[in-house]
Design goal:
Blueprint: E1 3-6, E2 9-12, H1 23-26, E3 30-38, E4 41-43, H2 45-58, H3 71-81, E5 85-93, E6 110-117, E7 126-133, H4 148-159, E8 164-169, E9 172-176, E10 180-185, E11 188-191, H5 202-213, E12 217-220, E13 233-238, E14 242-249, E15 252-253, H6 259-271, E16 274-275
Parallel strand pairs: 7-8, 7-14, 11-12
Antiparallel strand pairs: 1-2, 1-6, 3-4, 3-5, 4-16, 5-6, 8-9, 10-11, 10-13, 13-14, 14-15
Length: 279
Amino acid sequence: MKLVYINGRYSRHDAAEISINDRAVVFGDALYESIAVHEGCLFDYQRHLDRLYAGMTSLKMQPYMAQSSVKVPVANLLQKEGIKQGLLYIQVSRGVYPRAHAIPKHGKGSLFMYFKKMPTFVENREIGVWLASDPRSAYCQHKATALLPNILSKQDVIDKGGDEVVFIRDDRIIEAASANVFLVKAGTLYTCPENQAIVPGVTRERLLNRARHLGMDVVLQAPKMDWIEQADEMFTSHASNAISHITHVNGQKIPTKRAVSEKLFGDYFRTCPRHCLIR
């Protein structure tokens, strides 16, 4: 049975209801997190929750419940659904109010979550990407649900037979529509630094920390677009698979030596904290 948790209630997906006055519906005034579930355990659960609640604080959203209490409905859903492998989706909004642009001063937000069954941490996963000028505005650092530029850009790539779009600003590689991007050149690992142009990925942060721990050269600098032909390899990071190897850019095959990415993937899978909420 597919279940969803909405503001204290568990419902079937096909019977779940959200108010038409929820600000997630009328304004996209909402944040979300996706957390990988593998062998019944959640990967980097605490860091994802920390980022979600930090985003709410930054945007002055009142949470539906305290951060420490979220594990209760998560554990209940895990147990009811019997999920061993997949993705936990959590969304919060500013809440239900009559439609008005002004941010409500009182009240509390909405919370809903569900699990999606899907493969996670597929070793040596390969993807093809296309480059595109970044159409997004500021505040990309928040995982907001208003993702229309990402959706349209990614669909354009899918229509071309690719898997993901990589955004470019000032001839530099920023991030993908649903992942962070890394490039390895002459053995050095490059990725865009944290700023308002990227989502500060939880998996990205852990991979960077592990790369430094392993003695790799790491530079927080957005790679230049013309480095692609000289690169040892490129890859993306995302909660559901940790690392996906980029094998094609704009339909053309690129080098994929994988010395860095394969080492990082194995290290990540061995060391990433797991939260096993049910036994």
